[in-house]
């Protein structure tokens, strides 16, 4: 409760002005807080005892729009792409595009002008056979050279530095952290864990992440076909994941055949397992079973 008095017990004009200002200040705060509350139109649903908060103002699917492009059919052959599989951008704005079929890295400026390629097909240092991913770490380019079962490291201007062997099988889910450690998807092939971690010398550090289903010794394609015909996802598909790390060293594993992804700490501890529930995913799942 607020009381304002003057010496004579009567309120002066200045006192009235103060009261009016206080009143309108409180009124504005109440109205603005009410408007903020009204803007949030969340909808809370429960599915299988899971609390789901939906915001109708945010679309479940985002549509990407092209604002610029380069390349095409009317450029020199060395600037075209045959099977681009990965891309990285340096802090200087240079664009590095890895082409698995051309077996090289194509470097472009930010405006799309071509600079030069790195690498060629082969087994020697600086040569590739079906490279699959690249990442820029501390001004070095790390390449997973899957066909030659090795990692190759280059300077950003394309000079070969060194490489090391890793037991790359059939999985293509691979990524690096800021220290150059390699995280590789095992797919459960002769392994009881879903991810293997190697240092930048090729030494196995640890294996993390529980499998979905059972480990497999080999790919039984007859069994895989039969399970798909029955509307089931084979265990080898369930453990096929894509990997990426963030700047804090956390690891994210996206299950390609399941509607969920996992988050691991830098120490390999499971922090979260998040299920994706959208109609778009269900349509993809149904299409996969129909086409296979």
UniProtKB/TrEMBL annotation:
One of the record's GO molecular function terms: ubiquitin protein ligase activity
| The entry's keywords | Membrane, Repeat, Transmembrane, Transmembrane helix
What Pfam families does UniProt report for this protein, alphabetically? DUF5128 (PF17170)
Q: Which Gene3D superfamilies match?
A: TolB, C-terminal domain
> What InterPro entries is this protein classified in?
6-blade_b-propeller_TolB-like (IPR011042), NHL_repeat (IPR001258), TRIM-NHL_E3_ligases (IPR050952)
The record, for SUPFAM superfamilies, names:
NHL repeat
One annotated GO biological process:
proteasome-mediated ubiquitin-dependent protein catabolic process
- Transmembrane residues, as ranges? 16-34
Under which name does UniProt file this protein? Answer: 6-bladed beta-propeller
Origin species, per record, is: marine sediment metagenome
């Amino acid at each position: 409760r607020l009381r304002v008095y003057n010496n004579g017990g009567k309120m002066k004009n200045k006192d009235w002005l103060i009261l009016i200002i206080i009143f309108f200040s409180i009124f504005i705060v109440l109205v603005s807080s009410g408007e903020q509350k009204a803007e949030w139109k969340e909808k809370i649903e429960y599915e299988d005892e899971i609390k789901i908060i939906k915001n109708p103002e945010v679309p479940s699917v985002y549509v990407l729009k092209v604002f610029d492009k380069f390349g095409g059919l009317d450029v020199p052959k060395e600037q075209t792409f045959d099977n681009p599989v990965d891309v990285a951008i340096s802090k200087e704005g240079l664009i590095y595009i890895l082409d698995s079929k051309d077996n090289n890295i194509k470097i472009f400026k930010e405006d799309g002008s071509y600079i030069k390629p790195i690498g060629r097909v082969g087994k020697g240092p600086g040569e590739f056979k079906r490279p699959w991913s690249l990442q820029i770490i501390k001004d070095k380019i790390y390449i997973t050279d899957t066909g030659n079962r090795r990692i190759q490291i280059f300077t950003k201007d394309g000079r070969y530095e060194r490489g090391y062997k890793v037991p790359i099988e059939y999985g293509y889910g691979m990524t690096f952290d800021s220290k150059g450690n390699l995280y590789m998807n095992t797919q459960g092939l002769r392994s009881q864990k879903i991810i293997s971690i190697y240092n930048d010398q090729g030494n196995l550090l640890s294996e993390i992440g529980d499998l979905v289903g059972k480990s497999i010794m080999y790919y039984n394609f007859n069994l895989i076909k039969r399970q798909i015909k029955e509307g089931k996802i084979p265990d080898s598909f369930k453990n096929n994941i894509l990997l990426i790390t963030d700047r804090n060293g956390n690891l994210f594993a996206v299950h390609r055949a399941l509607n969920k992804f996992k988050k691991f700490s830098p120490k390999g501890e499971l922090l979260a397992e998040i299920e994706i529930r959208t109609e778009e995913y269900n349509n993809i799942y149904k299409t996969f079973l129909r086409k296979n």
